[in-house]
Amino acid sequence: MGMLVxxxxxxxxxxxxxxxxxxxxxxxxxxxxGRKINVSLEGSDLTDLLIRWLGEILYLFQGERLIATxxxxxxxxxxxxxxxxxxxxxxxxxxxIRHEIKAVTYHQSLVSSDVEGWQxxxxxxx
Amino acid sequence: MEIKLEQIDECRWLxxxxxxxxxxxxxxxxxxxIKSVRSDQSLVQVANVATLSGIVGxxxxxxxxxxxxxxxxGGVAAFDPDEGIVSPGGVGYDINCGCRLIITLxxxxxxxxxxxxxxxxxxxxIPTGVGSTGAIRLTKNEEMKVAVEGASWAVKKGFxxxxxxxxxxxxxxxxxxxxSVLSDRAIKRGNDQLGTLGSGNHFLEIQAVEHIYExxxxxxxxxxxxxxxxxxxxxxxxxxxxICDDFLKEMSSFTARHSISLPDRQLACAPIKSPLGKRYLxxxxxxxxxxxxxxxxxxxxxxxxxxxxxxxxxxxxxxxLLYDVCHNIAKQETHAIKGRALKLxxxxxxxxxxxxxxxxxxxxxxxxxxxxxxxxxxxxxxSYVLAGAEGAVTGSFCSACHGAGRVLSRSQATRLAKGxxxxxxxxxxxxxxxxxxxxxxxxxxxxxxxxxxxxxxxVHDAGLARKVALLKPLGVIKG
Lengths: 126, 479
What we know:
Number of domains of chain B: 1
Radius of gyration of chain A: 14 Å
Mean pLDDT of chain B: 95
CATH architecture of chain B: Alpha-Beta Complex
Helix content of chain A: 25-40%
Number of strands of chain A: 7
Shape of chain A: globular
Oligomer: heterodimer
Strand content of chain A: 35-45%
Number of helices of chain A: 2
Number of strands of chain B: 19
Low-confidence stretches of chain A: none
Low-confidence stretches of chain B: none
CATH class of chain A: Alpha Beta
Number of helices of chain B: 17
Largest sheet of chain A: 4 strands, antiparallel
Helix content of chain B: 25-40%
Radius of gyration of chain B: 21 Å
Number of domains of chain A: 1
CATH superfamily of chain B: tRNA-splicing ligase RtcB
Largest sheet of chain B: 8 strands, mixed
Mean pLDDT of chain A: 94
Structural class of chain A: alpha+beta
Order of helices and strands of chain A: EHEHEEEEE
Shape of chain B: globular
Largest interface: A-B, 27 and 35 residues
CATH topology of chain A: Archease, Possible Chaperone, Chain: A, domain 1
Distance between the termini of chain A: 7 Å
């Protein structure tokens, strides 16, 4: 399963991609207030950075049992991302899973731009 | 990208070496199966793998080939130890995902009326589903021991017998495991998932032997018509996924730093001899060992449930392991290339090792007949037991297929199954299924897979492995 994401600006693309991934995982992705976590990442280019960013959000769920309810990209360059992620604890009785994403793959991944803005393509391992 | 295919004979198609390909591609298939292969991108992936440094022979695909990430599923590729690379994507996320076939002395006629209750009991007792955690909580020290010792750790803890190790590929322990190379994240994800089945295509299936093709070999394997068997399909869970993910990212940085051009980023790799390549192989071995321990524990708990639910003695149950094989692995193996014995790094991503009779790596119990090759089909049709054959030595680096292979993606299957009650359809065929995930049964419905009989026939006709027995499903639990 994959997703195509578009946004008029680059920071918005990374924020939308994170929200879209949560929308794939959960029947009703939780939203609202929670604990804030700072994320800081480096990558070799924008595509690598996107895979690492989504991988980080996914790890919070897989490894820490935390669901990202909101993300804000604070700083972004072609090789660096800093963001604030709002999280709530995963409760299997409340948060129904729609699709288990096991990994964010590099396969056919791409971040590109044109006159209309930015686009991203990501394929997940289910 | 247009891929040219040349038919060699009724079982083999060649992708001629063109462009950046270092070797040709070779697909095991038949006229019917090759049509679905042409319709996805798996042939491009076979050609992509052929461009990787140090690949020898052919970039191979088994008849269950389908579109994967980077490498195709069903792909086999061997690399020269000096010039070659190792790729986490060539092993896959679920390192040492594999199958374990358990035989019993029970007969289908005795069990038929109790299958439904037994499926419910197994579903209750075996942890299944997304991120499922088990009854075992490992301290870090104990988890390190699992990573180094594999199935023998589980046996030492009372989950099985030494005899089980004789019937497990590599005796359930891969050498070279070094837990010091693991990330904290991998260790954390591994501490509570031992003894869990997982989700997706992982399953535990109660089966009956429906047909015997090769009586002498079936007898050596302990199989007889009407016998109840149990097939477990699981892997290294979040532990293995995290290890793959960690090293894919590291190797992605490595390839970028060294300006290595790859046709697909998921093929990120490092030279086998490089410090990074060696670290990955050490980490991968940890995950392989975790998976073998996992399946060993799942088997033990299955036995406990059977004894309790059926109220039989261990002697009457007569449960023992037939064999355990891995599907996703990179192994250092010796193969003959142009008459010269070379130690190669063989990547099997969705493929099974298949050793012929007499092979030096076979345990004495199977030396005469060859290695058991376990091929699960979909949950609504059948599975096969095969035995390794001589043709695999020269034809596939001693490899065979690993299952039926998907023809529909999970999304396509879910769309096709909309409005259908897959569990009821299976129950009408006498197969009782219980699953944890809401969409699992739709994603895994029989139509999502190729016809396993066709896949197995190609392997048999190509001389990679011989058909020994046919197993039909009676009950299944899934994540």
